[in-house]
Design brief:
Strand content: 15-25%
Structural class: alpha/beta
Radius of gyration: 20 Å
Largest sheet: 11 strands, mixed
Strand order of the largest sheet: 3-2-1-4-11-10-5-6-9-7-8
Distance between the termini: 33 Å
C-alpha cells in the first residue's frame, strides 16, 4: 500500500506528519509512504528524528496552499504545491492513497481537477464519522459538493452505507435524509426529489426517510445524507457546541468536591475522546478512484497515523469496487 502524505499540510506541519508517518510505518509493515513537501526541510526533520526507512521516500514540491487561501486560485498559482503533487502521484498510479491535513477546499479541488472519479460516480463527497446515542453515524457530504443534485444524494446513500458497513462495522445501516421535518413533503425541491428517488431506488440498505437535525445525535440513522453546504454547517455547529459544552461542564466541576471532580474529569475526558478527530484520523473523500483522507488542520501525530491506517483499511476492504458495483445496480437513478 503506497500513500502520498502531504507533509506541509496542517497547522503545525511538518512535525505531526513525520511523527504520524513513523508510527504508521511501524504498525503496518506493508505500508510505503511518499512524504511530499519541501525537500531540504523534510530531510532535515527526518535526520533530527533519526528516521530512515526504505519505505519512506521524500518527494519534493514547491509551495504550500495556506488555510486562508481560495483553493482554485491557490492551485492555479501553485501548480507544484504539496497538495497538488500528492494528487499527481495518485493520478499517475504511483500511490493508491492521499492523506492531507491542509486546506480542505484545496484537497477537494485538486482531486476534482484530476477527474479521478470511480466509474458511475457523478460527484465525490466527504464522509465524517460522528458519535451518537446509538454508537456512530456517517454523515455525507460535509463540504465537497454544495451544489448537489438529487441523484448525487442517492449515490451518497450508497457510498455512505458501504463505508458504514466495512469501516465502522455496522451490519445493517439505516439511511436517513437530513431535512427540516420528517414528513414526506418537507424541504426544498432538492430534498423532496431526493426523498422520492431514495424511496424508489434499489438500495442495499434500509432507507428510513427524512431525519431532522436533532435525530443525528439521537442515533435515529446510521448514515445521514445531505448536500455539502448543509453538511458543513451541521459539522461546524457540532464542533462548536461540543467545545462549548465541555468547557462549561469543566468550569462547573471546579466548584465540586475534589473526589467528585476527579471522577467527573476522567469521565469527561473519555467522552471527549469520542469526539476527537485524532481517533478517526480524518474524513474520506468517497467516490475517488483511489483513497483520499482529509484530516483536521490541528491534527497531531496520532491523528495522521490513524488516517494512514484508514487508507489501508479502505483499500483492503475493496470499498471502491463495491461502490462501483452498487452504483451500477442503481440504473437510471445514478444518471445525471
Amino acid at each position: 500500500m503506497r500513500v502520498a502524505l502531504d507533509a506541509m499540510g496542517g497547522d503545525h506541519a511538518p512535525g505531526p506528519n513525520i511523527e504520524g508517518a513513523a508510527a504508521a510505518l511501524e504498525a503496518n509493515p506493508d505500508l510505503e509512504i511518499r512524504l511530499v513537501g519541501d525537500e531540504s526541510l523534510l530531510r532535515e526533520q527526518l535526520s533530527l528524528h533519526g528516521l530512515s526507512s526504505d519505505r519512506l521516500t521524500v518527494v519534493p514540491s514547491q509551495g504550500v496552499v495556506g488555510m486562508d487561501e481560495k483553493p482554485t486560485q491557490a492551485l492555479r498559482a501553485k501548480p507544484d504545491s504539496s497538495i497538488a503533487v500528492c494528487w499527481k502521484l495518485m493520478a499517475g498510479r504511483e500511490v493508491e492513497g492521499v492523506v492531507s491535513a491542509g486546506n480542505t477546499g484545496a484537497v477537494v479541488a485538486a482531486g476534482l481537477r484530476t477527474r479521478l472519479f470511480l466509474k458511475g460516480v457523478r460527484r465525490p463527497g466527504i464522509a465524517v464519522t460522528l458519535p451518537t446515542a446509538g454508537g456512530q453515524a456517517v454523515m455525507m457530504d460535509v463540504g465537497a459538493n454544495p451544489g448537489a443534485r438529487p441523484e448525487h444524494l442517492v449515490q451518497y446513500a450508497v457510498m455512505g452505507t458501504i463505508y458504514a458497513k466495512r469501516v465502522l462495522g455496522i451490519e445493517s445501516p439505516r439511511v436517513g435524509l437530513m431535512n427540516i421535518g420528517t414528513e414526506d413533503g418537507k424541504g426544498n425541491e432538492l430534498y423532496r426529489e431526493a426523498h422520492q428517488m431514495l424511496s424508489k431506488a434499489r438500495l442495499e440498505c434500509q432507507y428510513i426517510g427524512n431525519v431532522e437535525g436533532r435525530g443525528l445525535y439521537r442515533g435515529e440513522a446510521d448514515v445521514v445524507i445531505c448536500e455539502g453546504f448543509v453538511g458543513n454547517v451541521v459539522l461546524k455547529v457540532s464542533e462548536g457546541m461540543a467545545e462549548f459544552m465541555m468547557r462549561s461542564v469543566m468550569q462547573t466541576m471546579h466548584h465540586a468536591l475534589d473526589a467528585e471532580r476527579e471522577q467527573g474529569s476522567q469521565a469527561l475526558q473519555k467522552l471527549a475522546r469520542s469526539y476527537e478527530y485524532s481517533e478517526s484520523g480524518g474524513a474520506p473523500l468517497l467516490g475517488i478512484d483511489g483513497v483520499s483522507i482529509i484530516c483536521h488542520g490541528a491534527s497531531d501525530g496520532r491523528s495522521i497515523a490513524n488516517a494512514l491506517k484508514v487508507v489501508a483499511k479502505i483499500e483492503h476492504q475493496n470499498i471502491n469496487e463495491q461502490i462501483m458495483r452498487e452504483i451500477a445496480g442503481l440504473g437510471d437513478s445514478a444518471d445525471s
